Amino acid sequence: MKLIRANRLIDGTGAAPLAGAAVLIEGDRIKAVGRVADIGTPEGAEILDAPPGATLMPGLVDVHVHLAYSGEVDPDAFRAESTSIHYPAMALRAARYARESLEYGYTALRDMHAPGGVIIDLRNAINSGYLQGPRIKAPGLGLTVTGGHMDQPGFADFVEFRDMNAACDGPDGFRKGVRSQAKRGADFIKLNPCVGSRRDERFYRFEMTVAEITAACEEAHEQGLMVGAHTSGGPPLTAAIAAGCDTVEHAHWIDNATLEVMVERGTYLVPTLAVNEASSTYILDQPNASPKTRRWAEASEEAKWERLTRAKKLGVRVAAGSDAGFFMPHGVGNGRELELLVKGGYSPLEAIHCATAVGADLMQIDAGRLLPGKLADILVVAGNPLDDLSILRRRENLSVYLGGKPIARLLEVAT
Ligand SMILES: [Zn+2]
After folding, report:
1. Alpha-carbon dihedral sign for residues 347, 351, 353, 354
2. 16 with 133, same domain?
């Protein structure tokens, strides 16, 4: 048994912090949580006193990352990089990103698609103990229509990608797509039902038909898999939720009636504020950006705050997902999402709740809260994140425990 004592404890449930608190760990679980005076010093427990002013809190959860990608901002460089790396090398690099994320306090990550489905193999390697890394849920390949969001045109006719994504067409095509990813070992299914328009001025349009979305959700749910959907907004988003998508990502344009349906159904919103900020900043900085791209960047920046205010007021479950791997690096990048939730009207305590308990619930893992019986994924933070969330983005401030075991810092010399 281990007893960690600190000045304050944030349990992840959204409750006010507890002063003079301790967590008792037995094996990989939390055995007791409370005031130091109430817990005492159980016999045989190893006692670890955190430095003065430190905070105990649950390990962070990011429910939207892409460990297969580097975060390279320049589109040409990103494209060159993504098309020149072999899948085994991509998996090896992802192992480093996963480890780095862990050192930055992220004890659980939901990956949102990877070429070759390589994050499934990374997850298996971690679960087998070959590597140390966060708890990972992965979908394998993302399912998209031919020529859709994840099957973009623009390559020469001699270029052929294998297993970059799974292009499906028709309800039966999507059923087969779901079955293939389930066979591969997917934890959930990633769909692309709704996107911004490539050709005209619409911010959103159907990419999959309602029949395709319904078939994919039915098949996934039949197999016990949740469905996470890349969405833009409007009627196609409403239809995707009605058809059964369990988590909607991005979802900039969303009306109150749809938010109410989400509350009723328990659908999660993953607002990905960080990637929106990073991509809009990049686009608006480019003198050659097309007026259409510029307009989308400006409009989505505006819509995302207004939507978040309404979602919070109506009680939608909002989980923190940064989209790290796109426009931002893994590890140091992920924590920006908490700061932006605060910019969007959440208190620091609420932002931590979104990035711990809500994220763990979405990922269906028994963590994210410092409560007896939960997995002992714990951070000891130098300082008080409620005063300044940015302290979470410096790994020298963090001691990380994953399943009760301390994580050594290996990646001090980051490139
Ligand atoms: Zn993404």
Report:
1. positive
2. no
